[in-house]
Amino acid sequence: MASIFTQIINGELPGRFIWKDGQCVSFLTINPVTPGHVLVVPRKEIDHWEQIDTPTFTHLTDVSQKIGRAIQKAYDAPRMGLLIAGLEVPHLHIHVFPAWSEELFDLRAAEQNPDPAVLDESAARIRASLRAMGYQENVPDEPVG
Length: 145
Hints:
Layout: H1 4-9, E1 17-20, E2 24-28, E3 38-42, H2 54-75, E4 79-83, E5 94-99, H3 116-132
Antiparallel strand pairs: 1-2, 2-3, 3-5, 4-5
Helix pairs in contact: 2-3
């Protein structure tokens, strides 16, 4: 059975995408630790990060860094958080989020029922920042999908 992330990637479940390319996608998490919290996910289902091939992992971290820079500008965050936890979904994903304190690195404190309007606004804000940085070819136009 496909992971929930594969279902989102394939359009079987909704997602607020901010990045799409041939190897990975990025979309807002439905349980953010702060507004602007996204996941960077390989298209290929890989459970453990240490099992991914080096070129794909390098691409994921490169995309995470680009997205992190865009989020930092969009939210004027003093730091950016990056985590690989992988216990909740058996499909590698990198958490990227604006960070104002170390407490935000605890995913147990993530918001369980965020306002959909806030998620939509976050997606639009990050997409605009990515476009301003020159990444138009990877930034989808759709607000949800």
